[in-house]
Amino acid sequence: MSNPNTPTASRATRVLVLNSGSSSVKYQLLDMHDGARMAVGLVERIGEETSRLVHTPLTDGGEQRERTAPIADHEAALKAVAEELAADGLGLDSPELAAIGHRVVHGGLKFSAPTVITDEVLAEVERLVPVAPLHNPANITGIRTAQALRPDLPQVAVFDTAFHTTMPEHAARYAIDAETADAHRIRRYGFHGTSHAYVSRKVAQLLGKDPAEVNVIVLHLGNGASASAVAGGRCVDTSMGLTPLEGLVMGTRSGDIDPAVVFHLERVAGMSTDEIDVLLNKKSGLVGLCGDNDMREIRRRIDEGDQRAQLAFDIYIHRLKKYIGAYYAVLGRVDAVAFTAGVGENAAPVREAAVAGLEELGLAVDAGLNAVRSGEPRLISPEYARVAVAVVPTDEELEIARQTYSLVNSAVDD
Fold first, then answer.
1. What pTM was estimated for this model as a whole?
2. Angle between helices 119-127 and 136-149 (to 10 degrees)
3. 3-state secondary structure of 30
4. Which of 104, 172, 168, 107 is nearest to 138 (CA)?
5. pLDDT tens for each residue of 59-93
6. Are the C-beta atoms of residues 145 and 74 closer than 8 Å to each other?
7. Is residue 414 flagged as an active site residue?
8. CA–CA dist 45, 77 (Å, integer)
């Protein structure tokens, strides 16, 4: 049996991408010969009686299949995924499978690039659990399960934080006691890095330029939301920090807040640290402001004259504009502002409102172009606009697969 830590010498072209959450596994099988998806799926509610697996083969006219039965743990979930893939002739034992790429949320400062997973790599990911308690444990479980299923196959970690490791120290450091910060790894790490990397590169292609020539503000707006300032293909600032709580207003997270609010709630409201954690991460943001975290529902309520929904939307947009302006100042020259992820790609009123009033900065959207629904990258700014405004559907799975396949093949070539 070959060494699992050494990428195989075969020229297999398929990559299985795994995104393991605390109670779910999202997966895609891609052929990197042309980037085509061969199968996609989701296992959700792992550990519950109502576990569900939805699998869709994308070759030879395959139809979506669904299982609804208890799935005890991630090992059982991945075995079920392997069975579904095998039923389509795409099993994990296929000689065409080159590697398995894993999304890992937090890689700290040590990992600035995709990394073949070894015991040492896993140990470092485990050491980062205190700063990513909701994500890294699930990522580790997915990795270990996949290793058990295919111990001979390269397993590659692609880190959400990696793209942001290029931030200069003056952007990454918080203004707290340096010794305390260093002792407890307190600094800005940033997240959604695979999305920001993919989108910033796609924007450069839209503009017909090399990424090294383009400065972009990327707005990843989903239930979780983050902004980044990308100068010549390198991140120089980002809105999320030590954790994914900082920055923009999100679906259920507060984003930026006076740290003293935590002390105030503890002293005056008698809330525990855990209660405040739940408040800021799960009961704040849009859902805390108006009871909904679905932008479509919020817009429907606004159209009906709902003032709470309107205020929540206004707060959301105000924070977004602040970051656009701040990152414009950080970059000095901006070639494009790009909207991506669920809200960014689909909510035309958000894009319009975020740019409104920024004409002096060279920003504008064309109402007709902004209203178009499309799954393709596109410009929505008028021709006269000094700064391009783009909508770029993100593809984190493809980015993970590309990075994984590139690493495996570069190691073979070496």
1. 0.89
2. 160
3. strand
4. 104
5. 877 789 998 999 998 889 989 999 999 999 898 88
6. yes
7. no
8. 10
